[in-house]
Design goal:
The protein has helices at residues 19-32, 37-58, 99-104, 111-119; strands spanning 5-13, 66-74, 77-84, 122-128, 132-140. By secondary structure, the protein is an alpha+beta fold.
Length: 157
């Protein structure tokens, strides 16, 4: 069981104008949690992609809704939860096409989830129809209390 746990929460209107704020929020927490600059940027990219999907697909670019990003940090992992009340999407039902096939079909969708899965150690979905959708992304912290291969490098500054 974790000896400490910190939780942070950001709730913003569902507009792409707020993606920079979301990235800054994630980066600040990643940095505070001891992740390297490179790993923090990757975490922010994954959460940005998840929030972009919510704004564009769950809310169909309507800025009258809200996106919630909740981050929990303990000594073992950092957990990002993106919560919305938009149109649900079950990614486990979507076909996972090879990148080459996406390119051949000139499809713009399908890469975001692949990107998120490549950055995070675990990705989970919870859909409560008519109530909320939750995307949980987990990144394990490595030995030394930080994440990723870059964590062993001394801080620059």
């Amino acid at each position: 069981m974790a000896s400490y746990e910190r939780t942070f929460c950001l709730q913003v209107p569902s507009s792409t104008e707020n993606l920079a704020l979301i990235r800054e929020f994630v980066a600040a927490i990643g940095e505070q949690a001891g992740f390297s600059e490179n790993e923090t940027a990757r975490l922010a990219l994954a959460v940005d992609e998840a929030c972009t999907n919510v704004i564009e697909h769950a809310y169909e670019n309507e800025a009258t809704h809200e996106v919630t990003v909740r981050v929990t940090v303990d000594e073992d992992e950092i957990v990002f939860e993106v919560i919305d009340r938009g149109k649900g999407f079950d990614p486990t039902q979507a076909p996972v096409l090879p990148v080459e096939e996406l390119i051949r079909q000139r499809r713009s969708g399908g890469l975001g989830l692949r990107l998120i899965r490549s950055i995070m150690d675990d990705v989970q979905y919870r859909i409560v129809p008519g109530e909320k959708n939750e995307l949980k992304m987990i990144k394990k912290r490595r030995a030394g209390g930080a994440g990723g291969a870059d964590a062993a490098r001394p801080a620059q500054g």
